[in-house]
């Protein structure tokens, strides 16, 4: 039997086949890698979605000031995904309320970093909150830095201008503070915190009429029972400077009614002004509340001596005209 010669494969054809084989393997590996990355991305997306559901529930509890429940829910959210901006924000707020300031700031910083990955840029609200935390800790340079960072992200951000004004007011830069507060009001017309701060600047700089106008604009937008004790005190001081004692007394009385016992310094300011107006019984009530909250307050002791002298003086004058003052 005659054997047919075997088919000879040329070297050139062989190399082409090998190249196609290798290319096929490479393509397969690429497709496999892409599939793995896609699967991993899908898992991450699912984890983030789950985390956001937990953090949304945590936000509800945080709003209700149920900090223990909120902390558990935010922790669960972060267990699912460290990329949940809301979970870091919520955990920061809970820890801040619990007094763990360092960890609170760390979580708020992480929330701001995550928000920075957004195509629209970092969330200025988170940056401002970081600045407010810095201000509360006495880090005024840090607070100013965060205010400027927020304004770089969004130039007309009311909170950024408000924080900037707050820092400058603390540093006695009255003009800079007024400019910042006015920019904040341009961005947000009704802004009680800013309006009160602005009124304080006008009042301390000898412009009580402008202080009243600022407070009136604020009070026109709220119910009377929503007005803070600080606003009532400022109105009382402004009316007093304008010589309108009747209105001043009414405002001081309202400031006392709205104040909590924890507002010790405000109560002392009210008492001191009431002594000036001769409303000694009302002053004693305010002073008593302040002393119950802080028995060792030196300012309160000074006002107590002032009040005692005023009672003695009033008693002496009353006895001269045959009128006996009831024992307080």
From TrEMBL:
Name assigned to this protein: Tetratricopeptide repeat protein
Gene3D superfamilies noted in UniProt: Tetratricopeptide repeat domain
A Pfam family of this chain: TPR_16
InterPro entries in the record: TPR-like_helical_dom_sf, TPR_rpt
Domain of life: Bacteria
């Amino acid at each position: 039997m005659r054997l047919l010669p075997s088919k000879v494969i040329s070297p050139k054809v062989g190399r082409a086949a090998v190249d196609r084989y290798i290319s096929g393997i490479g393509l397969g590996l690429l497709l496999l890698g892409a599939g793995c990355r896609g699967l991993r991305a899908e898992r991450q997306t699912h984890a983030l979605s789950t985390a956001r559901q937990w953090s949304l529930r945590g936000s509800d509890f945080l709003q209700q000031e149920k900090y223990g429940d909120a902390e558990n829910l935010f922790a669960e959210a972060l267990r699912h995904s460290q990329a949940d901006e809301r979970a870091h924000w919520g955990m920061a707020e809970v820890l801040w309320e619990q007094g763990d300031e360092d960890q609170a700031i760390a979580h708020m910083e992480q929330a701001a970093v995550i928000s920075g990955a957004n195509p629209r840029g970092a969330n200025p609200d988170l940056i401002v909150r970081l600045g407010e935390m810095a201000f509360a800790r006495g880090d005024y340079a840090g607070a100013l830095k965060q205010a400027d960072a927020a304004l770089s992200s969004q130039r007309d951000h009311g909170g950024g201008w408000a924080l900037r004004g707050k820092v400058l007011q603390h540093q006695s830069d009255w003009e800079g503070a007024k400019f910042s507060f006015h920019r904040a009001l341009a961005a947000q017309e009704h802004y009680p915190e800013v309006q009160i701060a602005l009124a304080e600047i006008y009042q301390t700089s000898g412009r009580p009429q402008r202080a009243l106008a600022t407070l009136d604009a604020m009070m026109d937008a709220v119910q009377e029972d929503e007005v803070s004790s600080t606003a009532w005190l400022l109105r009382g001081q402004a009316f007093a400077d304008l010589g309108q004692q009747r209105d001043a007394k009414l405002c001081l009385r309202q400031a006392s009614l709205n104040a909590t016992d924890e507002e010790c310094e405000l109560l002392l300011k009210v008492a001191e002004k009431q002594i000036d107006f001769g409303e000694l019984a009302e002053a004693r009530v305010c002073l008593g509340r302040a002393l119950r909250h802080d028995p060792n307050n030196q300012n309160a002791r000074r006002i107590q001596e002032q009040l005692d002298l005023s009672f003695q003086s009033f008693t002496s004058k009353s006895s001269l005209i045959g009128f006996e003052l009831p024992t307080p």
